[in-house]
Amino acid sequence: MAEVLCPNCRRSNPPQARLCQFCGAFLTDADMAKQSDSQPIRAGERPVVRPTGEFEKTKLPPAEPIRPGEVPIPKDTGELEQAMPSWLRALRESENVAQRDRAEPEPPALEHAEISPPQAESDALDWLSRLGEEEEEQEEIPDWLAALREPTAKAQETPKAKAPIPPVPEVAQPHPEGKDETFPEWFTRLEEPETPTTTSVPSDQAESFLPDWLGMFKDQAETAPGEDLHQAGSLGWQEEESAAPVEQALPATSEEDWLKQFEGQSASTGEPLPMADSESDWLKSLISESPPSGEPSPTEAEPDWLKQFGAEVPEAVAPTAEKPASSEVEPDRLKQFEAERLAEQSSSESASQDLPAWLKEFSAEVQQPTVSAEKPSEEAILPLEIPDWLSALGGTPPTSSTNTPAFTTESLPPEAKQAFSLPEWLTSFDVQPSEETPQDASLAQEGAPSFDTPEWLAEMDAARTAASERSLAFLEEGEPPQGVASVDFGLEVPDWLESVVPEREPETKEVAAEAFEAGQLEAAELPSWVQAMKPVEAVIPTVQPDLSEKEGVVESSGPLRGLRGVIPISAPITPKRKAPAYSLKLQISEQQRADAELLEKMVLREGQAKVVRAPSRISGTFGRVLSALLLIVSILLPLIGKTELAPDLALFPSEWLRTQQVLSEIPSASPILVVFDYDPAFSAELHMAAAPVMDYLITQGARLTLISTSPSGPALAEHFLRATQAKHLDAGAQYVNLGYLPGGPAGIYYFASAPQQAVPLTTAAAPAWESPVLEGVRQLSDFAALLVLTDNADTARAWIEQTSQARGTTPMIMVVSAQVEPMVRPYYDAATDAPYRIQGMITGLIGGKAFEQTYGQPGLSRRYWDAFGLGLLTSIVIVLVGLVPGLLQARKEHEKGGKA
Amino acid sequence: MKVKGLFPTLIAIVSGLIVLIGYLVRLPFLVEMSQTLLSWAVLLTAFAVLLGIFNLLIVHTRRLARKAKGSGYSLILILSMLATLAVGMIIPLFPAASRVLDIIFQTVILPVEASLMALLAVTLTYAGFRLWRHRMNFFTIVFLVTALLVLLGMVALPVLGNVPLISDTVRPILAQVFAAAGARGILIGVALGALLTGLRVLFGVDRPYWE
After folding, report:
1. Is B24 part of the contact surface with chain A (CB cutoff 8 Å)?
2. Domain end call among B69, B90, B111
3. A145, CA 20 to 30 Å: which among A27, A286, A827, A844?
4. Is CATH 3.40.50.720 what the domain over A656-857 is classified as, yes or no?
5. ipTM strictly over 0.85?
6. If pLDDT is split at 50, 70 and 90, which confidence band does A668 have?
């Protein structure tokens, strides 16, 4: 089956569809006609190749681009018509038809009959919904009325600027001849449905010219009753309201909030109200005022529009309706209302003096309530004089006369009917059918299906969706719907009617906007989820285009010539601004400039080759050789010459005296532990230091036990004895070499704790502790003295600390190298009762020389004494000689620095 | 800590605690246990010396096997080491062999190390000579002046003997006051470091045996 392709969204629609099911765009005959060549290519299909030679024939000569300030030269683009695509031609044709329709004085009646009802209804919904919104924001003081009054007053101040209000025609007795003269064209069109005439434009074509939102209404009217409610997708709120029971279908949008209480009262009966989905809530409230079904319907007072509306609604919604509502009761009630109204009007004539002309006429019509009672019964559902624009709602005839009209309250219980009290302003609205004519006429003009729709109506149509969203947001906020009902409208002051002039709608908006900006109106607080639903365009600050941009620009040239709004004008997302200009000159201070120059000099200096004078290899080698030769000569000469140039030591070391006392206290022939923990490199120094003491001890008959924590220690011990004590060994002196004691400090501690277990054998693999040298020695404290020869501070510290507990009162004498003296001296200078105190210390050659002099036995110290002194003196001289060139060079560098 | 390293750490901690407690509390069983553990430590240390000698032998044997550069020195080292080891091993059997060992010591080890020390004396002297020229600053002057005063205080000048005021005053002050003061600070730092190291080992924070 062939489908109609939407020119807007390019989606397929059923062939009988007049509106796109997806985007709501109307489908023209051209679209239907071109459906054959606009079938979408489906999966697996191949596109049809068509000749495009006509496009090549219509190439225009290249023209120079239009520069700013130049006026484009109009050119004949008729040849482009051939190359214009079919959809564009169809659009052009539809535009032409629309222009012709506007040029015609009286559009076909059929067109109005089909289009005007939903248009009028939607318009009524819009402006009434806005009134309801404003009323919700104002509780007691109808500021919105004041806001509406202000423009009205302004309008009254400049009445000439506005179009004169046409005289009010009598609805009950229409005057076809006179209406063309006194009413505008659109109003005359509203009257056409009652006098159907033949039309030259087919209905389908007329429908194709309908706006989208009007087309939806038409589709709704044309569809089956069961489908009406569900196919009105654009009026989802109405759909919900109609499909659901009254209790649940209470105001779905905030537009109807102000009349909630009316429905609420009706809903209290528990019975559904047969409301059409296209009717507004205020009409529902009117329906609730209608007499029960059991009573005769006041058809005499029913206006045409209500008759039609009532005839349409039951067909769609009220399947349970039994009988049209009677009209007998309602006229009486209205009469009562009107009587009260007349009484109030008579008492407030001054107030009525201020009313506008059209409202005065409205008051005049109030005094003729019986006019509408003469209407035929089948056309009267309510005693109200329904304006023609509302009567157009009943364009679709009722399918069944047994259906209950939509505006009946026959299902309501009597108490509910009594509780239902129509507001005064609404009653006044109800009883002034003829006075409403100017407004209704204007409303009908708004809803007229003509294509010369006024601008304010276009804006209302454009803002309809946004308004409904806003009202929905207000409804979600939980605004009390009683706000509208609580407004007390006096019968004498139907001010809102003054302001509800279609021509003043923009002014009302402006006033409301000004009031909002002035803080008189509270800003609506939308829930977060509603804010999240806001479109991005609502957040991005965009520059709102002016009114002309909204309407679109009529293309004046090219294939789109004569079309309006084909190319959408999008507002810039961000405001344009000129890029700030920055100076290219670097702005720096003097200090920064000086630093930059310095840095530049440094960088340039780094790039320059620096002349480095190679060090004189000859001078370095000569210096080292000369230094070595001087030292060697200064040392060898005394040794070779066996000179004694240097006098003996005159100043003995401070530790000499106490050490001498310790050695003198050692009993003769006592066991003495001698530790050889030094490297062979220091053997000469330690030999000179220890030889006098060892000689003294051996002379005293001491039994020496040798041990070492160094692997070379046992050999050094043997070497020491043979080098220094050869004469004593030859005389039969005995000693025990325990050899190497591994383990470092742990081995020393172990030896101090258990000497027999730590070193059971001698270097000759003999049982050490069975030797006569170690007779009576079982532990470390059994030795008479400990003599430690070391050149290492750590070794000296290990022997001092690890044996302090085990040796008890056994004195310890440290024979150390001169370099170790500072590290050992603290133990020597310690307190007398300190556990780590050493009792004696002999340091280097000087200590040995001092003991030699003490014991009067010249030895190695005396032999090396001259060499030692002369070598030190040579070293001092060499170092001091080096000071001279150093000072000269420093002076030279200082001079260079000063010159630089 | 992995389970694999838990057992060695426990051994180390327990051994250290036993030795430490045995050092502080002279209980017989603790002292005995402490001495046992110390004997193991001495034995292991001695074995470590042998292990080091064996490792040195292997390294130089490999170098000799692959004929690397300087393998001739490796050959001399291996022969010398084996010869000295052999002499030392036969000393218990042949006590006269100790004389051979003394000759080796006096003719090889002692002169070599003494020569290195003598070179150090010449090198330090020349370094002092050049130090004036290459780094003439405050600390250089202090260093060299201090060294010269100490040397001058130790020297026994020909005929003159000790240098007055320097030998009896300046040098003792420098060596026994300033140097001893610095040495005391070093010893305190060493003691604290040793204490901390011991505690870290006892607590299992440092595991030098695990490396």
Report:
1. no
2. B90
3. A286
4. yes
5. yes
6. confident
